[in-house]
Write a structure and sequence with these properties.
- With 265 residues, this protein is an alpha+beta fold.
- Among the domains are: 54 residues, Uridine Diphospho-n-acetylenolpyruvylglucosamine Reductase, domain 2 (2-Layer Sandwich); 95 residues, CO dehydrogenase flavoprotein, C-terminal domain (Enolase-like, domain 1, 2-Layer Sandwich).
- The chain is 34% helix and 25% strand.
- It has a 5-stranded antiparallel sheet. The protein has a 4-stranded antiparallel sheet with strand order 11-12-13-14, with helices on both faces. A 3-stranded parallel sheet has the order 1-3-2, with helices on one face.
- A hairpin with a 2-residue loop joins β12 and β13.
- The chain is globular, with a radius of gyration of 18 Å.
Length: 265
Amino acid sequence: MHPFQYHRPATLKEAVSLLRKAEDAKVLSGGQSLIPALRLRLSSPAALIDLAGVEELRGIVREDATLRVGAMTRHDEVATSKDVNAAIPALAQLAAGIGDRQVRNAGTLGGAVAFNDPAADYPAAVLALSAVVHTNRRAIAADRFFTGLYETALQPAEIVTSIVFPVPQRAAYVKFRNPASRFAIVGVFVAQTATGVRVAVTGAASCVFRAKAMERKLAERFEPDAIAKVRIAPDTLSSDIHASAEYRSHLIGVLAQRAVQAARQ
């Protein structure tokens, strides 16, 4: 690692102030992605602003038809929360399948969403559930938040504070995971709400995306065979050492049908 300044603010206001003043600073939430990047010298910030001490960014609150999860809420807290398991069990199950126990007890929802790794699980839930990402400045709809490879709509000195998830009628997440990292080679989150069906795919391309052709079919008939013939074009997907674009295209169809079946149970 290279030398850098380390700050540990106690409040969101202090964190934002530090971020505005510090030159080339990065926000540290769970550190499960940033710390390895620092060790490999893939990231070289002049300062780190650690949000671990900002208690106002933690917690889970049920608010009528929504679930608000603080940005610094750990994956394990989401997985074991009674409120999450009662309102959106698919979200709790997703969190329980992230990494290993150490990762789940250190990684945070806000960090995962802000980092936007193309194989991360949470972006699929945020997009499929039509969640709203709240920051110290504004509220950003899921459809406008994820913009590209490791890119989001966040602006300089903007920090994710919480994410509000509408409670769906039913939902499920199924992924084909990398056996070593447990990242999604492909993951599909399906959610049915009063306003329609949303299908989000992670791990298959440079950024999480919606499978709108599947959404249209499932809006007509929410059954696995309704999307049996829907295929995502391989030329829009990623190829790497883990899976070819053609295989990922196949996996999306298989996992989407499994997710629909799981949501129906």
